[in-house]
Amino acid sequence: MKRISQILQTGTCIPEQSNYIPSTTSNVLWGRLPCRNDRMIGTVHSGNEITIDTISHEGLLEDQGSDPMAYFATHGVAANDVLNDGIAIARECHHNPDTDGPHVVTGPIAVPEAHPGDLLAITPTTLAPRVPYGVISTRHARGVLAGSEDFDGNYGQFCRADVENETAWFPVQAPYSANTSSEPASTVRFPMRPFLGIMGVTTASNQRPSSIPPADYGGNIDLRNLTVGSTLFLPVQIEGAGLYIGDPHFAQGNGEVSLTALEASLRATLRVQVIPADEAKRLFGRTDLPFAISHGTLVPMGFGSMLDDALSQSVEHAIDMIAAMFEMPRQQVYLLLSAAVDFDVTQAVDITKGVHGLIDLSMFQQLPAYERTMRDIKTYADDASQTNPTH
């Protein structure tokens, strides 16, 4: 993870000749995802990289005062360490908390080579923290324990980030801390694994969808495996794809049970590649749902209004893909999944629930189709053949 030597304000620390998209007010949507009628704010050609600023919604929201400077000051953040684009978005961008999602989304960005039916392969090559802090929260009766006497409500936890050592931390509140007021506060620390909660392609609808539920176009997937080097594959919906990203995270557990992850702003550099429809179908068999390849692991996704529905779709997705990729009988794949594959809850709080499988691709290395399949996949996913997957 890239060290943070200073706050990454708009335009700072950008190498010359970079294809760079800032998260300024004219380049973002707040609470909505792009639709086919939205103008493209930039262009990236297939095979190239693009650097995009993202901004966390924490500190911008109406129930936090709509004033990031004041909100973060209450947590000891200096004025110069608050992102200027966040201040401008909170002040100038339209947002209806009753109908819109909370997320700030940068895009859409044209990929001229992309056509409906193709797959867009998106690989984060750098995910740089823009600030050394973030927020975890629960609110609006949206956590998995909503309605419980002990845990329901609107509250959060400000966290500091030790970017150099790749950990985040916060002090434990009294009376649970054994320390007295004259002693340093007890803290808990946990690993930072930055990723983008939202990566998507523009819907073919004429109306902007809410930023909250994920769908076949991606969006708010909240897949924690999409760290640097991993690749997300999305079915293109419109001419030019209309790539967008947002909902930056420093860390998240599978399930995202309280409602949010450790929400914190990132600068993302992405490699973008188009896989033509015929090639995509040949490689993967099924191309109508998002999936990922992460550190030697195939990650087929499923969505549904209930977790059971999301699990069923993820299992069916996995069977379709493995049967096509490695020329296995579908019933044998089904049995293999039960014996050798974990299916985890991606998130349980985004209206549409998510489940993903974690399939170690090295299991198939003795099959005749393995070498050809892996050679072709590595064209789009560099880490496909890693043999020590981290889930």
TrEMBL record:
A Pfam family reported for this protein in Swiss-Prot or TrEMBL: FmdA_AmdA
Gene3D superfamilies: Acetamidase/Formamidase-like domains
Any one GO molecular function term: hydrolase activity, acting on carbon-nitrogen (but not peptide) bonds, in linear amides
Signal peptide from the UniProt entry: none
InterPro entries recorded: FmdA_AmdA (IPR004304)
PANTHER family: FORMAMIDASE C869.04-RELATED
Name of the molecule in the record: Acetamidase
